[in-house]
Amino acid sequence: MAAPKFAFLLLKLISVLPLLVTSFSADRPTDRRILVLLDDLSLKSSHSLFFSSLKSRGFDLDFKRADDPSIAVKRYGQYMYDGLILLSPSTDRFGGSLDMEGVLDFVDSGHDLIVAADANASDLIRNIAAECGVDFDEDPSAVVVDHSSYAVSETEGDHTLIAADDFIQSDVILGNKKIEAPVLFKGIGHSLNPGNSMVLKALSASSSSYSTNPSSKLSSQPPSLYGTAISLVSVVQARNAARIMISGSLDMFSNRLFRAGVQKSGSLNKYEKSGNEQFITELSKWIFHERGHLKAANLRHNKVGESEEPLMYRINDDLEFSVEIFEWSGSSWVPHVSKDVQVQFYMMSPYVLKTLSTNEKGLYHTSFKVPDVYGVFQFKVEYQKLGYTSLSLSKQIPVRPFKHNEYERFITTAFPYYGASFSMMAGFFIFSGVYLYNK
Fold it and tell me: Rounded to whole angstroms, how far apart are CA atoms 374 and 425?
């Protein structure tokens, strides 16, 4: 009986190996599998443009209802998916083995996450967002209202359909092509946790917006969220390179708003198509590491005029340092070109800080003199820039003083002391001769 059981387990392992082999890696961020959890499978058709965009870029989507009992993101200790999309704002509990801790562990393992909420957002979705540094309005019925920046082309007088155009200023996150048309947003707002420096506003509300329950009577209490403090869409890049997108609107991903024309109130500009498709598509490229993903290779150092790395340096040696940095373009690695990459020669504190020159083909290099201090140093490259994955490189090298036979035979600055010594010896002989032979 043991042999058939072993054969069955081996067959199961072989069946899952292709999923594990094609998973995301820092060296090959492509051929990725994404689990999409939906409140209703009808969202596959109502939000098909968003899903088709992902499929056209080579992603393999696995659709499941959020309460499907077969849900599992890990098998045999390995994650089967590289990204997770939660378009299930009203779900109180995930099916299968997935729960809030499982989602957070998924992100902690370096995987990416997209969360969409709406006015029916459950405590589960709110808690996941809170763990990522985003706090939705405490009023479960509150939505974002704006009497100045609403979309007049959709529903005249519906001030909950906002035409937002306050985007994050980053070509890495939103692409090089400017988003001309406003983005249509209908949903709930959130604020950023001031204690979390990793979370950023990707789409902000205008100064005239506020969060309230539109069906309730007027209240004397001011809204808890208002003005530009309201974030409509936020992004997070964790220290482990995992990326997260949190939106307060599920409709924002829908075909209806992708195709809708838009005219912002108070503006004469009318657009045949909203900016939703461009905004979501470009932002998803960044979330899934199709842009802004860096890798470093070939960190090298050597004495000037030599090619081999020494085991140690001597104080005041002249050395050369180089490293190669590449960026993923979505299909291949291309040279990353920047003028702000620096290297530190570090021991307790940086003794040397140099900005690296680049040949614009991925190679960064510089040269400097080893400081007149001996000990154990490190070459350190700490590169952190908005929208890019951070690079943290280090290489240890000892620095020794001069040996006793490596000093110069005669030191120029010591000539006065040499002169004083010889003049004293000469004076001693003269004095001795005068003293002994003088009558």
Answer: 37
